[in-house]
Specification:
Elements: E1 7-10, H1 20-33, H2 40-46, H3 51-59, H4 65-83, H5 93-102, E2 106-110, H6 115-124, E3 133-135, H7 148-157, E4 164-168, H8 171-179, E5 183-187, H9 195-200, E6 205-207, H10 215-220
Parallel strand pairs: 1-2, 1-4, 2-3, 4-5, 5-6
């Protein structure tokens, strides 16, 4: 039906903003304190995953759930102290957020990051007003490429998955969107994943930056 609502669900790190180096530095510091090296390969293997999964992957110890939460919070405190110094939306993002909002498209965040990080980024970039809801680490039990984070976001927006477009920059995120029955636009601006891999994962469109997209392009993907 033409009157049926549609939605755009945004990943954050690498999509809305580029905070990868801040995350990398925070993990290096945390791992060093725990007597464990943390390499670029480790970062590539874990970027975009939920903290509980990353911590168990990195340290391979039998931590209790509370210990995992405490370790994760320590890392996020390091990250947030750097982010407070300044983060900007990536090129074309604000114009797209504005245009989608003006057309009545419902928008939400769907991220593996803790909600505290999401609120921080949206506050610093003055973009909270565009999003009807946020879905973060605390709202899910399974990380990407499982579609849970995007399905929860769609449910909160009261929009069926087939009427949703996901904005992503990572292969696991594209896979999650497609597994959830959604369309997906992938952006290569930050450069975590090459265009070929994003297309192979199922991205419906791959762009170098969001300056290449109009709101009509995004809504048009839904059909």
């Amino acid at each position: 039906m033409a009157s049926e609502p549609c939605a755009v669900i945004w990943d954050v790190d690498g999509t809305l903003v580029d905070t990868a180096e801040m995350h990398f530095a925070a993990w290096v510091r945390l791992a060093g304190e725990m007597g464990h090296p943390f390499s670029r390969d480790d970062f590539t293997a874990t970027f975009g995953r939920r903290n509980p999964e990353i911590i168990r992957y990195l340290f391979r110890q039998g931590f209790t759930d509370q210990e995992v939460r405490d370790i994760g919070e320590r890392k996020e405190n390091y990250y947030r102290s750097e982010a407070e110094k300044g983060v900007r939306l990536l090129p074309g993002v604000r114009e797209l957020l504005d245009g989608l909002h003006a057309r009545g498209v419902r928008q939400a965040i769907g991220s593996s990051a803790p909600r505290g990080n999401l609120e921080l980024i949206l506050r610093i970039t003055d973009s909270r007003k565009y999003f009807e809801d946020l879905v973060g680490m605390e709202d899910t039990q399974r990380g990407k490429p499982d579609p849970q984070v995007f399905l929860v976001a769609a449910a909160k927006l009261a929009v069926p998955p087939r009427r949703c477009v996901v904005m992503e920059d990572a292969v696991a995120g594209v896979e999650a969107a497609k597994a959830g029955g959604m369309k997906c636009v992938a952006v290569t601006f930050v450069g975590h994943h090459p265009e070929a891999k994003l297309k192979a994962a199922g991205a419906d469109r791959v762009v170098k930056s969001f300056t290449e997209l109009t709101p009509d392009n995004v809504v048009g993907l839904i059909g």
